[in-house]
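Message: Just now I want nothing more than another pair of eyes on a protein record. I am handing you a single protein, as its sequence and its fold in token form. As I understand it, each token names a local backbone shape. Take your time, and here it is.
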Amino acid sequence: MRLARRPLACLLLLAWLGACAPRPPASWLGAPTAIAPGVELYRTGDESLVEGIGPIAVNLLRLDPRRVYLASALGNDRIAEAETVAGIAERRHALAAINGGYFNRSNGEPVAVLKVAGQLVSDSSAAKGAVIISAPSSSEMRLVFDRLSAKLTMNCTAGTATWTVPIDGVDTTRARGKLMLYTPAYSRDTGTAPTGIEWVLDGEPLRVVAVRQHAGRTPIPVSGAVLSFGGSEPPPSLAALAPDVQVTFTTNWKSARGVPAAELDHAEHIVNGAGLLRWAGKVVTDWKDEALSVDAFVEARHPRTMIGVDKRGFVWLLAVDGRQPDYSIGMKFSDLQRLADRLELTDALNLDGGGSTTMVAAGRVVNRPSDPTGARPVADAIVVLPR
């Protein structure tokens, strides 16, 4: 009797294991190409994703957060030096990569919140969709989707005197009458004209070590930063910045989801987007808070890049080709929502798209970018790395 029960017990065990195992993606995606452990590449041309009005081409990466992690990477490791996604992926020895946040094509500077390797390299007073990436070595990667803004305040100490100064911009082009903070992530120097005042910050704790009047292109210390004011007559709070004044910086976060400031301060990476599509299991249909143009952006078909998490915890990176009528017409937000439904995404964010949309897997570009050059340099990319 005992021998007769064993086959039944084994069958029950196998059935239980099968029920607990992650279900494969729906058949409409077809069979994947294995890129690396925990990385699978899918492709689809299912025209029902765009209401059957034209051809569509979508490349999708399905990532197991137990086996890989994501990181934001700057072009050439500098704010002011854009680079192709393929170039970034090669330098970082990435298993795969997609283009990341929005940026100013004229100078390569990010236009919203961007945090790389624990350092805020771009601030913004406007709240935009963003993905917060945490990848602790002791546990699997975690993504949180939010609408974020961030501005810095400088805290100054000289003897018993203390005061604060708002920072107008981080790692961005200086404007007249504004105070900018340049970090080592920006470039080797500030790149400014000799029409302002610059303070060199260095040391531990951070202190003013030099004041440069009517000087530009101040070298940025590897372990410090440079403050740059656009003008020769600074306000009293800046005029008091003499050598040996100690400074610290506070990030003033605004989170629509209520993510604690301490968690945002400790996040390894934050990448901006434009248009949350899914948020904690809920469909998003109102983007007024992100000030997105409905006609030109939300309801227009463009190449799109998207990041999301499904209800089983897998991370998806997507590149939707567009602006190529004979090959792929691109997607509206409603099409991206339909795609998110198919993938059962609980959270999803529209990243930079258009000619920037690029996906790299196993060392090659797997989609067809619409940029005339075929390889638009971008400010930053999201890279997939082995744990």
Observations:
- The two ends are 48 Å apart (CA to CA).
- Confidence is low (pLDDT under 50) at residues 1-5, 10-21.
- The CA atoms of residues 6 and 12 lie 10 Å apart.
- Residues 2-20 form the longest helix (19 residues).
